[in-house]
Design goal:
By secondary structure, the chain is mostly helical. The protein is built from nine helices and no strands. It has three domains: about 10-60, Orthogonal Bundle (Arc Repressor Mutant, subunit A), CATH 1.10.10; about 65-105; about 110-160.
Length: about 160
């Protein structure tokens, strides 16, 4: 009996290098995303590691640039907090020093402003009349978006008093 094994696309290293260069040129990628893509194309680990070195030397792949672009995009476009961004970068196996550097690029005033905007928009949607439950729902939402709980609660407390 043959089992249903998913078809694995097999590319030659030369074909894979050209494709992965296009993949990296399209948008910033982490080394792990590139590594996963190459494994899916059926390449062996020694070929993959050699290709990654080539991509770094040819400036197609730069982890620092990726971390910075990823952080900025998730913060500005998706309005994610630092906690959620950090977790996503860790999932992509970005090193801790690069994560710290990328997160430090977020302007503190913009960060607070964005958090206040997230809270304000959520306040409009929450129909709860009980003030404690209302605050809890609003704060939970902001915390889920990746903002630090202490910061969220300080702002939720202020907004309810106004």
């Amino acid at each position: 009996m043959t089992e249903n094994i998913p078809y694995k696309k097999i590319l030659s290293p030369e074909q894979a290098l050209l494709r992965i260069q296009k993949y990296c040129a399209y948008q910033e990628r982490s080394q792990q995303e590139v590594r996963n893509r190459l494994y899916n194309w059926g390449l062996r680990s020694n070929e993959i590691e050699s290709m990654i070195v080539d991509l770094i030397e040819d400036n197609f792949l730069k982890e620092e640039r990726f971390a910075s672009a990823f952080t900025g995009g998730k913060f500005r476009q998706k309005k994610w907090g630092k906690v959620k961004i950090k977790m996503a970068l860790q999932e992509k196996r970005v090193s801790a020093p690069l994560i710290k550097k990328a997160l430090s690029e977020i302007n503190e005033k913009d960060y607070i402003k964005t958090l206040k905007e997230v809270i304000r928009l959520r306040e409009k949607l929450v129909k709860e009349t009980n003030s404690f439950k209302r605050k809890h729902k609003i704060a939970s939402y902001a915390i889920q978006r990746g903002f630090e709980p202490e910061l969220v609660w300080s702002i939720v407390g202020q907004s309810e008093e106004e």
